[in-house]
């Protein structure tokens, strides 16, 4: 145990470092001081200054009794010498307790590693963890499916018994955890987080399990048998790493194990399949669902790049949100092909779930436009790349970029390859932008929001933080000063393109 941590946990009174050479020195045991001892590194010697062993470089001593004067310390250079005013009997007891807890922690870690190495699975590991920690726990994946649970946990509350029976967390418990922001706190601190609701009988430690930087599971531990100590948090943190290893060892994320799906998707992305009938036959053999409402979703990780094992983790998590999807690692990205019913699209729950998952794992995604045949898939992938590139430029704070939102910018990007983009802009809108810069007005922002919410002007006013009457007044001013015919649909389209082009030019 590191010396500085031992002193913090022991909570001595009036701790003063009289000499310091290595505050992180590892302390394995302690001894009451005897100045006849040959001092050893790794031992904490406790006693009054005159009782301490002869100074030797790197040793650690805890001085009790009267505080030594500075003129008594010249010989103590190169050692860790700490003084406390705590009574001697308290010092001995607290040091003993701290080191005993450290020994138990190390022994518990050994037991958990032993349980992992038996190959008997996650439930066996969790049962061993229960014996070690003394409090029951549960492990769920990111879809709130129960992966393992200690049977004693279900004895505490009827709803926990119900959860075990259905195999998933109940919506009421999920919503309660979200209201308490338990996962957000655990993510923020990167460490197990404790919470106890005012009306609850027991509190919980919540901890997150990561594999290759991707959140794959959560652990909950209830303090129904004994209060938690500092070492319980350390053990739960250690258990998270073992659970991650167990999930990987069991190939838990193997839903896309058939390479044939990835091969076909890669062939379509590369343009190697040029015959529509061939594409349809190959996809039918693999059981793909084809509709008139298909999309490409490309996932990006700008920090590290995406590799095979991490891609499997992301794929498994998103599969519950995109049940008809197939995926492939392509050009260091994860590319999903997904099909919705002909008359449907992703619902709000799917969109919210996708956004939450990507955000918490620091990933981004781009969604193509809709397509109807597999031969359009390559073009849809290019659309997703364009949406991501343009989205990062125009709205870098977003997590998901939908191609339909960036179509005007893509048009501008293509036009700029043939002529200066300004030559395609409406002169009246350029004059408006110049007027804004010269007079510190907000006409351009007003016009942008007004066109964005043409059928719901109150939303435009809310976005601008102005009253609806103020919005209408500004629009009248824009029409009169700059000759814009906003009642003309074709004119509105040309103005909208110009606004997008101006953003690209900036």
Describe the main β-sheet briefly.
5 strands, mixed
Which structural class is indicated by helix and strand composition? alpha/beta
In spatial order, strands of the major sheet run: 1-5-4-3-2
List low-confidence stretches.
251-258
Q: How many strands appear in the DSSP assignment?
A: 15
Number of helices: 18
First CA to last CA: what distance? Answer: 57 Å
Share of helical residues: 40-55%
What does this structure look like?
This protein has 506 residues and is an alpha/beta fold. Helices cover 47% and strands 15% of the residues. The strands form 3 sheets. It has a 5-stranded mixed beta sheet, covered by helices on one side. A hairpin with an 8-residue loop joins β8 (193-195) and β9. α2 runs antiparallel to α3 and α15 packs antiparallel against α16. The longest helix is centred in the first third of the chain and has 30 residues, at 88-117. The two termini are 57 Å apart. Residues 251-258 have low confidence and may be disordered.
Describe the secondary-structure layout.
Elements: H1 3-10, E1 16-19, E2 29-32, E3 43-47, E4 60-63, E5 80-83, H2 88-117, H3 122-133, E6 137-141, E7 146-149, H4 158-166, H5 171-179, H6 182-189, E8 193-195, E9 204-211, E10 214-222, H7 230-249, H8 259-270, H9 276-285, E11 294-300, H10 308-319, E12 326-330, E13 333-339, H11 348-360, E14 364-367, H12 377-394, E15 400-402, H13 403-415, H14 427-439, H15 443-452, H16 457-464, H17 468-482, H18 489-505
Parallel strand pairs: 2-3, 3-4, 4-5, 14-15
Antiparallel strand pairs: 1-5, 6-7, 6-10, 8-9, 9-10, 11-13, 11-14, 12-13
